[in-house]
Write a structure and sequence with these properties.
Subcellular location: Endomembrane system
Distance between the termini: 78 Å
GO cellular component, one term: endomembrane system
Shape: elongated
Protein name: Putative membrane protein
Keywords: Membrane, Transmembrane, Transmembrane helix
GO molecular function: manganese ion transmembrane transporter activity; metal ion binding; oxidoreductase activity
Largest sheet: none
Radius of gyration: 24 Å
Protein backbone atom coordinates (compact mmCIF):
# COMPACT_ATOMS: atom_id res chain seq x y z
CA UNK A 1 0.00 0.00 0.00
CA UNK A 2 1.17 3.53 -0.74
CA UNK A 3 -0.14 6.76 0.76
CA UNK A 4 -1.87 9.48 -1.28
CA UNK A 5 1.16 11.81 -1.26
CA UNK A 6 3.45 9.16 -2.71
CA UNK A 7 0.78 8.15 -5.23
CA UNK A 8 0.60 11.73 -6.55
CA UNK A 9 4.37 11.80 -6.98
CA UNK A 10 4.34 8.43 -8.73
CA UNK A 11 1.62 9.59 -11.12
CA UNK A 12 3.68 12.68 -11.99
CA UNK A 13 6.70 10.49 -12.71
CA UNK A 14 4.49 8.04 -14.58
CA UNK A 15 3.45 10.90 -16.87
CA UNK A 16 7.11 11.84 -17.26
CA UNK A 17 8.08 8.28 -18.23
CA UNK A 18 5.37 7.95 -20.89
CA UNK A 19 6.24 11.41 -22.24
CA UNK A 20 9.91 10.48 -22.55
CA UNK A 21 8.92 7.17 -24.15
CA UNK A 22 7.20 9.09 -26.95
CA UNK A 23 10.11 11.55 -27.32
CA UNK A 24 12.68 8.77 -27.67
CA UNK A 25 10.37 6.88 -30.04
CA UNK A 26 9.99 9.94 -32.30
CA UNK A 27 13.74 10.62 -32.27
CA UNK A 28 14.62 6.99 -33.03
CA UNK A 29 12.60 7.24 -36.25
CA UNK A 30 14.36 10.45 -37.25
CA UNK A 31 17.96 9.29 -37.14
CA UNK A 32 19.77 6.32 -38.68
CA UNK A 33 22.30 3.72 -37.65
CA UNK A 34 23.18 2.45 -34.18
CA UNK A 35 22.01 5.68 -32.53
CA UNK A 36 18.46 4.94 -33.67
CA UNK A 37 18.66 1.48 -32.07
CA UNK A 38 19.93 2.97 -28.80
CA UNK A 39 17.08 5.48 -28.67
CA UNK A 40 14.56 2.77 -29.54
CA UNK A 41 15.80 0.60 -26.66
CA UNK A 42 15.65 3.55 -24.25
CA UNK A 43 12.08 4.23 -25.41
CA UNK A 44 11.17 0.62 -24.54
CA UNK A 45 12.77 1.00 -21.10
CA UNK A 46 10.80 4.19 -20.44
CA UNK A 47 7.58 2.38 -21.34
CA UNK A 48 8.58 -0.46 -18.99
CA UNK A 49 9.09 2.11 -16.20
CA UNK A 50 5.66 3.56 -16.98
CA UNK A 51 4.04 0.14 -16.55
CA UNK A 52 5.89 -0.48 -13.27
CA UNK A 53 4.53 2.79 -11.90
CA UNK A 54 1.05 2.03 -13.25
CA UNK A 55 1.01 -1.18 -11.24
CA UNK A 56 1.19 0.91 -8.05
CA UNK A 57 -0.94 3.90 -9.07
CA UNK A 58 -3.51 1.71 -10.86
CA UNK A 59 -4.08 4.66 -13.20
CA UNK A 60 -3.58 5.24 -16.93
CA UNK A 61 -1.71 8.49 -17.62
CA UNK A 62 -1.44 10.30 -20.97
CA UNK A 63 1.84 11.82 -22.21
CA UNK A 64 2.40 15.55 -22.16
CA UNK A 65 1.88 16.25 -25.87
CA UNK A 66 3.35 19.73 -25.65
CA UNK A 67 6.61 18.45 -24.13
CA UNK A 68 6.87 15.73 -26.77
CA UNK A 69 6.50 18.37 -29.47
CA UNK A 70 8.90 20.74 -27.65
CA UNK A 71 11.78 18.28 -27.23
CA UNK A 72 11.46 17.01 -30.80
CA UNK A 73 11.49 20.63 -32.01
CA UNK A 74 14.60 21.34 -29.91
CA UNK A 75 16.33 18.37 -31.54
CA UNK A 76 15.68 19.85 -34.99
CA UNK A 77 16.91 23.33 -34.04
CA UNK A 78 19.81 22.63 -31.67
CA UNK A 79 20.62 18.99 -32.28
CA UNK A 80 20.04 15.73 -30.46
CA UNK A 81 22.53 16.37 -27.65
CA UNK A 82 20.89 19.60 -26.59
CA UNK A 83 17.33 18.21 -26.68
CA UNK A 84 18.18 15.09 -24.68
CA UNK A 85 20.24 17.01 -22.12
CA UNK A 86 17.32 19.39 -21.65
CA UNK A 87 14.94 16.47 -21.13
CA UNK A 88 17.23 14.49 -18.83
CA UNK A 89 17.59 17.47 -16.47
CA UNK A 90 14.04 16.70 -15.37
CA UNK A 91 15.09 13.21 -14.27
CA UNK A 92 17.04 14.38 -11.19
CA UNK A 93 13.99 14.93 -8.98
CA UNK A 94 12.48 11.60 -10.03
CA UNK A 95 15.71 9.79 -9.19
CA UNK A 96 15.65 11.18 -5.65
CA UNK A 97 12.10 9.92 -5.10
CA UNK A 98 13.02 6.52 -6.54
CA UNK A 99 15.95 6.33 -4.12
CA UNK A 100 13.72 7.22 -1.16
CA UNK A 101 11.04 4.69 -2.09
CA UNK A 102 13.17 1.79 -3.36
CA UNK A 103 12.81 -0.08 -0.05
CA UNK A 104 9.01 0.16 -0.33
CA UNK A 105 8.85 -0.57 -4.07
CA UNK A 106 11.62 -3.05 -5.06
CA UNK A 107 11.27 -2.35 -8.82
CA UNK A 108 12.63 1.16 -8.29
CA UNK A 109 16.13 -0.33 -8.01
CA UNK A 110 15.70 -1.57 -11.58
CA UNK A 111 14.46 1.85 -12.74
CA UNK A 112 17.45 3.61 -11.11
CA UNK A 113 19.86 1.17 -12.78
CA UNK A 114 18.20 1.70 -16.17
CA UNK A 115 18.37 5.49 -15.84
CA UNK A 116 22.09 5.35 -15.04
CA UNK A 117 22.69 3.12 -18.06
CA UNK A 118 20.68 5.55 -20.21
CA UNK A 119 22.92 8.44 -19.17
CA UNK A 120 26.06 6.51 -20.17
CA UNK A 121 24.53 5.52 -23.52
CA UNK A 122 23.41 9.06 -24.27
CA UNK A 123 26.88 10.44 -23.57
CA UNK A 124 28.24 8.42 -26.48
CA UNK A 125 25.44 9.35 -28.92
CA UNK A 126 25.14 12.39 -30.42
CA UNK A 127 26.14 14.80 -33.14
CA UNK A 128 28.83 16.85 -31.52
CA UNK A 129 29.37 18.56 -34.88
CA UNK A 130 26.00 20.25 -34.68
CA UNK A 131 26.65 21.21 -31.05
CA UNK A 132 29.94 22.74 -32.18
CA UNK A 133 28.13 24.90 -34.74
CA UNK A 134 25.48 25.87 -32.23
CA UNK A 135 28.32 26.95 -29.94
CA UNK A 136 29.59 29.16 -32.76
CA UNK A 137 26.12 30.66 -33.10
CA UNK A 138 25.93 31.35 -29.38
CA UNK A 139 29.37 32.97 -29.57
CA UNK A 140 28.02 35.36 -32.19
CA UNK A 141 24.88 36.08 -30.15
CA UNK A 142 26.87 36.70 -26.99
CA UNK A 143 29.50 38.94 -28.57
CA UNK A 144 26.94 41.04 -30.44
CA UNK A 145 24.89 41.40 -27.28
CA UNK A 146 27.74 42.74 -25.16
CA UNK A 147 29.24 45.00 -27.82
CA UNK A 148 26.12 46.41 -29.46
CA UNK A 149 24.03 47.14 -26.36
CA UNK A 150 26.83 49.38 -25.14
CA UNK A 151 27.31 50.97 -28.55
CA UNK A 152 23.60 51.73 -28.99
CA UNK A 153 23.34 53.14 -25.48
CA UNK A 154 26.28 55.47 -26.08
CA UNK A 155 24.99 56.56 -29.48
CA UNK A 156 21.52 57.18 -28.05
CA UNK A 157 22.80 59.67 -25.53
CA UNK A 158 25.32 61.21 -27.92
CA UNK A 159 23.00 61.75 -30.89
CA UNK A 160 19.46 61.49 -29.46
CA UNK A 161 18.14 60.71 -32.93
CA UNK A 162 16.60 57.29 -33.59
CA UNK A 163 17.35 57.10 -37.32
CA UNK A 164 20.95 58.20 -36.88
CA UNK A 165 21.48 55.70 -34.04
CA UNK A 166 19.83 52.95 -36.11
CA UNK A 167 22.04 53.61 -39.13
CA UNK A 168 25.23 53.91 -37.06
CA UNK A 169 24.38 50.77 -35.05
CA UNK A 170 23.54 48.77 -38.17
CA UNK A 171 26.75 49.71 -39.96
CA UNK A 172 28.84 49.06 -36.85
CA UNK A 173 27.08 45.75 -36.19
CA UNK A 174 27.40 44.38 -39.71
CA UNK A 175 31.07 45.36 -39.88
CA UNK A 176 31.65 43.71 -36.49
CA UNK A 177 29.84 40.55 -37.66
CA UNK A 178 32.35 40.13 -40.50
CA UNK A 179 35.18 40.70 -38.05
CA UNK A 180 33.76 38.17 -35.60
CA UNK A 181 33.18 35.59 -38.34
CA UNK A 182 36.78 36.01 -39.51
CA UNK A 183 38.05 35.61 -35.94
CA UNK A 184 35.98 32.45 -35.48
CA UNK A 185 37.36 31.06 -38.76
CA UNK A 186 40.95 31.65 -37.65
CA UNK A 187 40.20 30.23 -34.20
CA UNK A 188 38.67 27.07 -35.67
CA UNK A 189 41.55 26.73 -38.13
CA UNK A 190 43.94 26.67 -35.19
CA UNK A 191 41.89 23.94 -33.51
CA UNK A 192 42.94 20.51 -34.75
CA UNK A 193 39.59 19.03 -33.69
CA UNK A 194 37.55 21.49 -35.77
CA UNK A 195 35.82 19.82 -38.72
CA UNK A 196 34.77 22.80 -40.80
CA UNK A 197 36.13 26.26 -39.83
CA UNK A 198 34.33 27.97 -42.72
CA UNK A 199 30.93 26.63 -41.68
CA UNK A 200 31.57 27.58 -38.04
CA UNK A 201 32.48 31.14 -39.06
CA UNK A 202 29.32 31.42 -41.20
CA UNK A 203 27.15 30.34 -38.26
CA UNK A 204 28.88 32.89 -36.02
CA UNK A 205 28.41 35.71 -38.54
CA UNK A 206 24.74 34.90 -39.14
CA UNK A 207 24.03 34.75 -35.40
CA UNK A 208 25.82 38.07 -34.92
CA UNK A 209 23.83 39.78 -37.69
CA UNK A 210 20.58 38.32 -36.33
CA UNK A 211 21.33 39.81 -32.90
CA UNK A 212 22.29 43.13 -34.48
CA UNK A 213 18.95 43.31 -36.32
CA UNK A 214 17.06 42.37 -33.14
CA UNK A 215 18.78 45.10 -31.11
CA UNK A 216 18.71 47.83 -33.78
CA UNK A 217 15.11 47.21 -34.96
CA UNK A 218 13.42 49.38 -32.26
CA UNK A 219 15.32 52.44 -33.54
CA UNK A 220 13.73 51.97 -36.98
CA UNK A 221 10.27 51.53 -35.45
CA UNK A 222 10.14 54.31 -32.82
CA UNK A 223 11.06 57.94 -33.38
CA UNK A 224 11.77 58.50 -29.68
CA UNK A 225 15.33 57.23 -29.02
CA UNK A 226 14.66 56.56 -25.32
CA UNK A 227 11.67 54.33 -26.11
CA UNK A 228 13.83 52.59 -28.72
CA UNK A 229 16.51 52.01 -26.10
CA UNK A 230 13.99 50.48 -23.69
CA UNK A 231 12.84 47.99 -26.32
CA UNK A 232 16.46 47.25 -27.21
CA UNK A 233 17.06 46.40 -23.55
CA UNK A 234 14.01 44.09 -23.58
CA UNK A 235 15.34 42.35 -26.70
CA UNK A 236 18.75 42.07 -25.02
CA UNK A 237 17.18 40.30 -22.02
CA UNK A 238 15.48 37.86 -24.42
CA UNK A 239 18.87 37.06 -26.00
CA UNK A 240 20.42 36.65 -22.53
CA UNK A 241 17.67 34.21 -21.52
CA UNK A 242 18.30 32.21 -24.71
CA UNK A 243 22.07 32.18 -24.19
CA UNK A 244 21.81 31.25 -20.50
CA UNK A 245 19.36 28.46 -21.24
CA UNK A 246 21.63 26.99 -23.89
CA UNK A 247 24.76 27.07 -21.71
CA UNK A 248 22.95 25.68 -18.66
CA UNK A 249 21.74 22.69 -20.68
CA UNK A 250 24.84 21.89 -22.72
CA UNK A 251 27.38 22.49 -19.94
CA UNK A 252 25.05 21.29 -17.17
CA UNK A 253 25.43 24.53 -15.21
CA UNK A 254 22.77 26.47 -13.35
CA UNK A 255 20.62 28.75 -15.47
CA UNK A 256 20.51 31.42 -12.75
CA UNK A 257 24.32 31.76 -12.60
CA UNK A 258 24.77 32.39 -16.32
CA UNK A 259 21.67 34.56 -16.63
CA UNK A 260 22.69 37.03 -13.93
CA UNK A 261 26.34 37.00 -15.02
CA UNK A 262 25.39 37.90 -18.60
CA UNK A 263 22.81 40.42 -17.40
CA UNK A 264 25.39 42.15 -15.22
CA UNK A 265 28.05 42.24 -17.97
CA UNK A 266 25.72 43.44 -20.75
CA UNK A 267 23.92 46.08 -18.74
CA UNK A 268 27.14 47.10 -17.00
CA UNK A 269 28.67 47.83 -20.40
CA UNK A 270 25.47 49.64 -21.37
CA UNK A 271 25.58 51.82 -18.24
CA UNK A 272 29.22 52.78 -18.89
CA UNK A 273 28.30 53.63 -22.46
CA UNK A 274 25.49 55.89 -21.21
CA UNK A 275 28.07 57.89 -19.31
CA UNK A 276 30.52 57.96 -22.24
CA UNK A 277 27.74 59.13 -24.54
CA UNK A 278 26.78 61.97 -22.21
CA UNK A 279 30.42 63.05 -21.82
CA UNK A 280 30.99 62.92 -25.59
CA UNK A 281 27.86 64.95 -26.24
CA UNK A 282 28.87 67.62 -23.72
CA UNK A 283 32.58 67.69 -24.60
CA UNK A 284 32.13 67.88 -28.37
CA UNK A 285 28.95 69.97 -28.11
CA UNK A 286 27.09 67.66 -30.50
CA UNK A 287 23.67 68.82 -31.61
CA UNK A 288 21.78 66.68 -34.11
Amino acid sequence: MIDNELKKKLMAFQKNEITEHHVYKHLSKRIKGKNAKILENIAKDEYKHYNILKKYTETEVSPNSFLVFWYVLLSYIFGLTFALNAMEKGEENAQRVYEEAKDVIPEFKEIILDENVHEKKLLGLIDEEKIQYVSSMVLGLNDALVELTGTLAGLTFAFQNSRLVALSGLITGIAASFSMAASEYLSQRADKNSKNPLKASIYTGIAYIFTVILLVAPYFIFSNPMISLIFTMINAVIVIVFFSFFVSVVQEKTFKHYFFEMLFISFGVMALSFVIGLIARAFFNIEV
